[in-house]
Amino acid sequence: MPEFLREHGLMQRAQLTPLSTPANIEEELAGIRAQKIQTASSIFEKNRVPVRGALRAIVGYAFDEFNLPKSGGVDIGSGATGEMVEELLPRSVTQSSWVQLEANPSAVKENQRRHPNSRIVEGSYLNMGVSGLDIVTRTPLAWVNFSVEI
């Protein structure tokens, strides 16, 4: 998460205290699980709203350009907002076939509160708990893999 915040320049704008880069994935996941969702999610959401249309266009382009399936995906790191599945997927994509995966239990609960009809589960890269999905994403923009079996 610290690298993600640095990459988007949010640490400077939000005057957050810089964190050290995790030594390993377990350390990183522990930090994400313990993070207060207000620290990153609300700031990130506020900064993303003005560019939502552009983000939708990028995601739509990826679906068209790579002829991605219209159903069956997992959004890794869905956060408290569920932005990828709830806001950015093209309207032609079956949102109900997607799983939102988040390591932070507080973010899972907030996302479930916002989107009670969505499938939102606690998990991580190391423990996905889902299988048979064709698309894997990492929010907000970086596509990790296409057409993979988890």
Question: What does this entry look like structurally?
Answer:
The structure is a single chain. The protein is α/β, with parallel strands linked by helices and 150 residues long. It is built from 7 helices and 5 strands, in the order αααααβαβαβββ. The longest helix has 14 residues.
Structural class: alpha/beta
At the third CATH level, what is the topology name? Rossmann fold
Radius of gyration: 15 Å
Broad shape:
globular
The strand line-up of the biggest sheet is: 3-2-1-4-5
CATH uppermost class: Alpha Beta
Summed up, the helix count is 7
Q: What's a quick, concise take on this entry?
A:
This protein is of the alpha/beta class and 150 residues long. 42% of the residues lie in helices and 14% in strands.
